[in-house]
Design brief:
The chain is of the alpha/beta class and 187 residues long. Helices cover 19% and strands 30% of the residues. It has a single domain, classed as Rossmann fold. The strands form three sheets. It has a seven-stranded mixed sheet with strand order 3-4-2-5-6-1-7, sandwiched between helices. Strand 8 and strand 9 form a beta hairpin. The structure holds adenosine-5'-diphosphate (ADP) and zinc ion.
């Protein structure tokens, strides 16, 4: 018996580029086609709660938080489409997990930040991008100049983050902005 394999699509870009909106658009269309959709995201503490994917325009879809890539298998309920949001936070095992899901015939849609605030490849994203059949790299609007923004600027206590800042800064007030290449700063 010939078994049809699935494939993986990656949606990436900086914060505010509309990755969640694009996921919701693809999810809606899959539901219109009466396909079973399961949505996962990385969630460390709340592994038993059902969360929802909220786009900045307020639309929601139920999401299952998992603490590592393998845990996706514990929740599998025969989906035609499996969505992974914030995929940059997963361990490198997510690449093998994705391949296994594809081999089971599932269409995987993974969305995440392609780069961290230092503009380096974010976690497993470079491997996932290499695996993908289809990649959409989308841009936000630079908050400084209005051009297309492909960078996520981290602001710590009101000033651009420094190269040697730790990923988690205890006690500091962090925020993030979308910026273009010219306006992005790593002090
Ligand atoms: P992502 O998942 O990539 O962080 P969302 O889909 O959650 O993005 O949000 C995208 C929405 O955010 C846009 O449609 C817009 O309404 C809003 N937004 C706020 N700031 C910006 C910005 N600097 N550039 C583009 N969109 C922005
Ligand atoms: Zn700019």
């Amino acid at each position: 018996m010939a078994m049809k394999r699935g494939w993986v699509e990656v949606v990436c870009g900086p914060m505010y580029s509309g990755k969640s909106e694009e996921l919701l658009r693809r999810i809606r269309r899959a539901l219109i086609a009466r396909q079973k959709v399961q949505v996962f995201k990385h969630g460390i503490d709340d592994r038993y709660s059902i969360d929802s994917l909220v786009s900045h325009d307020g639309r929601k879809v139920e999401t299952i938080p998992v603490k590592n890539s393998k845990e996706i298998f514990d929740h599998l309920d025969n989906p035609a489409v499996l969505v992974i949001d914030e995929v940059q936070f997963f361990d490198d095992g997510i690449i093998e997990v994705t391949e296994e899901l594809i081999n089971r015939g599932i269409r995987v849609i993974a969305a995440g930040l392609d780069r961290d605030f230092k503009a380096d490849p974010f976690g497993p994203m470079s491997g996932l991008l290499a695996l993908a059949e289809k990649v959409d790299k989308i841009t936000a609007i630079c908050v400084k100049c209005g051009k297309a923004a492909a960078y996520t600027q981290r602001i710590v206590d009101g000033v651009p983050a420094k190269k040697d800042d730790p990923i988690v800064m205890v006690g500091a007030k962090n925020s993030y902005e979308a910026r273009c290449r010219d306006c992005y700063q790593l002090a």
